């Protein structure tokens, strides 16, 4: 039965890569449903069997939200410099290179401007596949510049968070990105430009402690994990068993920190409806 | 006095000195010369140890049980003018985050900071300096109140982190910190931040955005504690020394990276070795910083602050 033998030894996929955009013919959702990947793609990467929202990245979100998948990417060539020459078991510079090679991305966020439902919107979308969607100098700078673009051109702003938090390998520099991005959001707020925060699975740590929770509306997708401290840390610190559904989008909405949860199929219509309502302009028919 | 592991040579010499002096008083032996020699050796040893502290040793000093805490500084600086103010007007009064008004000479300041306890009972009462969301909301309430009356704000940071508890998550720990950070970037009065001990991540930055950020010499400030960093990246608690080095978390490193504005000198041996001297230095540093910003218009002040934070980050392209 040579079919079942592993050809390569020591295959060790990091957790963050385990449930990603399906590449094969079939996708198995966590409840065990098997779905044809083409069908999954047509259904906005939501399992038609059980409504499970598969983790997707900027590529897919841009396709879902921008009309005809047309957009102009902002600052596509910003990359990290490894300012601290950080090294743990592995050099940070090597981690960066590996992540870039593996994902084809430059860092953990992509920013773009384009039309959604016929109106301009600036979207910054994080990619969890790139070092856990962690926020370092590049993520902070790209988000700040995208917010600047919104500010200058008076275009609504949206951030799609999908991140484990700050990037440890840039230490305090990454911590200061919380302040840097929040300062920009304060400027947007002072200029009365709407800012929508979409928290997707997962949104934790420094991301939650900055832009993810600062939207004029904070919204999410069903079942997404949203929290400040990760569930394991909370359990270890308090020694308490965590209640069912702890830190899910539904839990966070119930405690008053999300405006609504939208299935991905409804996302484009709902954010554009919100913008038409808050800006008091005629409601467009966006499907 | 408690000694850290790397201070043991000092402990030994101090004990020798004590014994030597005792012999001198109890017998007719002339010990002046011997005592002098030990004193000389002690001074040299101290200098040698404290001039060459590693990052991890500074982390240890920042947590020294004899180190002064937030209220010690405020009480020493303001004397009986300090008036503590409580509560977030929403859930409760967070004992890990204290605040209130006080004078430095003729100028009123709003003081806000994390508070640690000095024995088991008070440590629990203060939740080890780990604030809950209501602590951050209390801090924001006091900052907004100061802004309303044009009173400058001084925040004092000493925390191992924001509390990672179940109720903290329910009440929106992330949102509370995020809101503070955003509001602090645009607060219309001067904000002076002093890091007196531990500056751990979002829990510190939640009251840490300011026009002038000062770090005492033996403190640390980073995105994560060296222990947690070791456990996540090395998958073991054993690499805290390496993690402390890698994180570049000392005052010197932070100044070099331009993430803080100034380092405040501590007495030889650390802030606790001469508390009065430390309080005086910190008081003078706050006054000096305030002079720099007191005449700026609110607009210029906020612009300057936002510009400062916009500059932080290193990238290519």
Looking at this protein, list some descriptive labels.
heterodimer; A: 287 residues; alpha/beta; 2-enoyl-CoA Hydratase, Chain A, domain 1; seven-stranded mixed β-sheet; two-stranded antiparallel ribbon; 17% strand; B: 317 residues; eight-stranded mixed β-sheet; 14 helices
Walk me through this protein's architecture.
- The complex is a heterodimer of chains A (287) and B (317).
- By secondary structure, chain A is an alpha/beta fold.
- Chain A has one domain (2-7, 56-278): Alpha-Beta Complex (2-enoyl-CoA Hydratase, Chain A, domain 1).
- Chain A contains eight helices and ten strands.
- In chain A, a hairpin with a 5-residue loop joins β1 (26-28) and β2.
- The termini of chain A are far apart.
- The mean pLDDT of chain A is 93.
- Chain B has two domains: 5-52; 59-311, 2-enoyl-CoA Hydratase, Chain A, domain 1, CATH 3.90.226.
- Chain B is built from 14 helices and nine strands.
- In chain B, strands 1, 2, 3, 4, 5, 6, 7 and 8 form an eight-stranded mixed sheet that branches.
- The termini of chain B are far apart.
- The mean pLDDT of chain B is 96.
- At the A-B interface, β4, α4, α5 and α6 of A face α7, α8, α9, α10 and α11 of B.
- β4 (79-80) of chain A pairs antiparallel with β9 of chain B.
